[in-house]
Predict the 3D structure of the following.
Amino acid sequence: MIDRIRALLMVIEEGSVNRAALRLRITQPALSRQMKALEDEIGGRLLEREASGVSPTALGHALVKAMRPVVKSYDVALANLRREARGERAELRVGYLVSAAQSVLTPALARLRKSHPAVKLKLHDMSPREQIDGLRAGELDIALIGQEGAVAAEDFHHAKLRSFGVCVAVGAGDPLAQRTSISLKELKERDFIGVDEEQMPGRNRWMAGLCKAAGFKARFVVIVDGITNVLSQVVSESAVTLLPDYFLKSQHPGVTFVPITDERARWDFIVLWQRGRAPSSTRALVEALKEVTAG
């Protein structure tokens, strides 16, 4: 039907079936049959035949108004799909975890700009769960995600960009806040604050696994929504939580971050991207991320 509508738009533009047929490189009878078939499909006359040519009926005008933007959108979508089939992409949609990605994403994007200056970037600061859901819905091309990305690694291409150490967040008035470092086993008797698995899938299991490796079971007394609320609960509940050690450079009222000494305590920073033939811009950004984190 889209081809018949496109042909009708040409006929109306030319005001003549003969001239439209020449532009479309088909015979006049063949184009007339297309117009008749379209009128039958719509259920009414679209063209007035006159001695001087043709003009749209009221229904024809309504069809032009309704369908011209549809045809334009169709053409744009088809062109984008063809570019993607060739491994090209006009747009690159990137989800990222701002706390982990800020020192990595900016220099990687600078490299991408040099190799793919025409690519339109769409950056989305998203929680791990939002990134995974975005990938699964086809709304993201790349996700820069933390340890939580491991739960979805089987569904996408993935690569570990960097492995961070771990720190513990404690209240500023906690005796542990005066320490320069802490081993995990020293947290055996402490209460832990967990984070909502809907936002950060696997984060609590990661903490529990580190504690188990240190010989004890983590006791989660509160599960809250988001890291900011986790840190607030660390203060109000006199509890602790484990975080990647880039938080050592962060500040939060009433909270002190202390390094964990256990060598096995690590937090991986992961990039996920869609399976299948990745556009060249996606491959270029992944390579740039690897180069930045390796440097």
Observations:
- The two ends are 55 Å apart (CA to CA).
